[in-house]
Every structure is written in C-alpha cells, then in structure tokens.
C-alpha cells in the first residue's frame, strides 16, 4: 500500500540550516548535510530544503549543498526558494535534487509551471502555496506571507494542477506556528478537488495532528520543521503511533 | 566487483547524478556516457530516466542509442522511465519504445491521485535483483504510467491495480521504482545488480 509521507523541512542559508535547530547529539546542528543524514536515518520519507539566501550571488552555495546532500542521501529531496527559471531548475536537478518547489515565481508567471513540467516532467514540480483565511475566503500570499495577492486559493490550486504541477505543498498561514494542528478541513477540500498529491504544512504540534491530517485532512504527506528540529516529536515514534492508528507508513 | 566498468547512459533525460552517487556509495566509480563504444565495452549498463517518453526517445535516437540498447549483451538495468522505454510502446504521447520487453505502457486511471508518488510495497519478488529483499519492503515510486503485470514481471506493486515494479528478460533488468532513492532496500537491489 502507498504510505503516507513524513517530511522534515530544513531552512538553509548559505548552505547551513537556520532557525530553531536544537540538536544536542549532532556535532554541528547547523550542518545541513549532517542533519539531512540524521533525518534519513530516523525514517524521514523525504526532505525539503528551503533556501532563504535571498541574494543571487549566494545561489552557488545552494547548488553545492544540493550536491553534498545528494552524495550522502538515498531518499528523495526537494529544493525550494528563489527558483524562477527553467535554468535554475536544470542546475538544481543536475546537482542531484529530485524535485523543486516554486511559490511566488509561479504566481507571478504561471507559465513557469508548464515550462518546467514539459521540460523536466510534472513529477519534479512542487507548487508551494501560502494562504491565509480571512473574511470568509482563502487568499494566496507571496514573499513568505508578506504580500497579499487577492488570488483565491482554490482557483490557484486548480490552475497549478492544470498547468502541470506534480504536487501541491499547502501552508495555512493561520495554522503555521500555532502547534494547534493542520488546516484539515481546507486540506480535505483541496484533496478532493485535485488529482495530484498534496502535502500538508503548518500547525504540527503533536503526533495526533499528523494522524488527523492524514485521515480528516486527506493529505498524502505532512511537512513540519520545529517539532522535529526540537525533538518534540521523533520520527520513529511518530511512525509507530501512525501505524497503531492504521495509517500506512513506511517503518 | 569494485573494479568493474559500469556505464550510466547519459541522454539528457533525468537525474543521472543520483544514480551516480548511489553507485559511488557502493565504492564504484561509474562512467557517464552517451558514446556507443564506451557503452558497448561496459561490464554493466544503467539506463535511467525521468521525464517525458517521446522527448526521451527523441533524445536516444539522436545518438543512435535506440538501436544500440536492445543489442547489448551485458546486464542492463533500466530505471523508471528507462524501464518504460524498454517496452514496446507507451500511451504517453503514443511513443514507440525500444521493444526489449513485449509490453505496452499504460496510463493510470484517475481513480486515485496520479502520479503514483511515494513509498510503496513490493510483492511477489522473483529473481536475483531481489536476493535478500523481503516481501512488502518499501521502495520509492514516482510515475504516472505503468507496465501491466506479465511473464517478465519479477516484482509487483499495487496502486489502483497490480502493476510491474520490476521486469527481467535475458540480460535486461528494470525497476519502475528508484533504487537510488529507496533507502537501504534500494542499496541492496543496486548491489545485487552490480554483483550479477
């Protein structure tokens, strides 16, 4: 049976992980490669690296990182952050990334999705969407949640699927950081609306939240950062728990 | 085993690096090439691939690799799209394949989400590629098209229906999943291929 995926997300800057990584048993908690290998060992099904290095000149550090991770790791990983052209994607995939995640650049230029899908295949195109619920509607935000677009979440996700996205990574800004659980009602609605996998993101606080997003939220995968980085949840325990709830996981 | 020459076919379709790195982790330094002589002289050949079938076949034709691959006599391992291209034809853009396996590649129906993406279990394991691999072990799949089960099927998987997770005929081996991305199970499968 196809298993539900557990995906730790690592924010990287200049090739090192940043923001809330507190691993006492790692030699260097900032070393992205070491952390990636640790998660793979723990049973993570995939990894996402989000590059928050804003400047163009520093992009090379990301390519170096992708190469180092690919050399070490035998599970799939996605790279996101600042990707806006097929050339960017070609470089990252050639360095060993399996998928790329695009967000703001896809909203600004939806044709990027179809360009990437036809050149590299839909399977490597993850469209990440940040959205906020307010005044009765879900609105898409850009630039890490700083810029409102006026675009309706459901319209945009349908459009992304139509253009050839292989997967949707949906982050609810209302839930992100709250540790009160994922946006399951909306996730379920999205999951039924589209026919490509959907990754739930934002709101993970305990193991039950993961179970809920797979059952109530109908998500295909769940992504989280701080609960893993601070070891509030350890992946082997999480998977055991999910299995006990009859949720298919790879152990 | 470590001094054998393993050639990864480079035809501008797919994540060749991952396969290369996976072999390097086994202590092998593979050669990446699209040169006919280099490929012919290999002890073993790996034929990877991700992307779109028609585009990939065109790319093979440009280098005459469409003629070469079916003639190879050493062990050849097709991965993902590589496996699908080794079949007779594919519903993806109505593409004619290399015809090594007398099988037709079909598209999954939309009963469930497509692509079939993620870790899924292997069933009915046969043959040397799966020595030491247990039934129901998980490997990583990403694909929208599948090869139906047939005589050449040496491992199956279930998503929407039972399909071929692996094929074998004579010196030709193939995996629909990505052994290079399938954790320790994938390592074992690649090791088995290298040890053939």
Characterise the protein shown here:
- The complex is a heterodimer of chains A (251) and B (196).
- With 251 residues, chain A is α/β, with parallel strands linked by helices.
- Chain A has a single domain (5-244), classed as Aldolase class I (TIM Barrel).
- Chain A has ten helices and eleven strands.
- Chain A has helices at 32-42, 59-72, 86-95, 104-108, 111-120, 153-163, 184-193, 207-215, 226-229, 235-244; strands at 5-13, 16-17, 47-51, 77-80, 99-102, 125-134, 137-142, 147-152, 167-172, 198-201, 221-224.
- Chain A has an eight-stranded parallel beta barrel with strand order 1-3-4-5-6-9-10-11, surrounded by seven helices.
- In chain A, helix 1 packs parallel to helix 2 (59-72).
- The longest helix of chain A has 14 residues, at 59-72.
- The two termini of chain A are 13 Å apart.
- By secondary structure, chain B is an alpha/beta fold.
- Chain B has a single domain, classed as Class I glutamine amidotransferase (GATase) domain (Rossmann fold, 3-Layer(aba) Sandwich).
- Chain B is 25% helix and 32% strand.
- Chain B contains six helices and 13 strands.
- Chain B has helices at 16-25, 36-40, 53-62, 65-71, 81-85, 183-194, and strands at residues 6-9, 31-33, 44-47, 76-79, 87-90, 95-96, 101-107, 116-121, 138-143, 145-146, 153-159, 161-169, 172-175.
- A seven-stranded mixed β-sheet of chain B has the order 2-1-3-4-13-12-11.
- The mean pLDDT of chain B is 94.
- Chains A and B meet through helix 2, helix 3 and helix 5 of A and helix 1, strand 8, strand 9 and helix 6 of B.
- Chain A: It catalyses: 5-[(5-phospho-1-deoxy-D-ribulos-1-ylimino)methylamino]-1-(5-phospho-beta-D-ribosyl)imidazole-4-carboxamide + L-glutamine = D-erythro-1-(imidazol-4-yl)glycerol 3-phosphate + 5-amino-1-(5-phospho-beta-D-ribosyl)imidazole-4-carboxamide + L-glutamate + H(+).
- Chain A: Pathway: Amino-acid biosynthesis; L-histidine biosynthesis; L-histidine from 5-phospho-alpha-D-ribose 1-diphosphate: step 5/9.
- Chain A: Belongs to the HisA/HisF family.
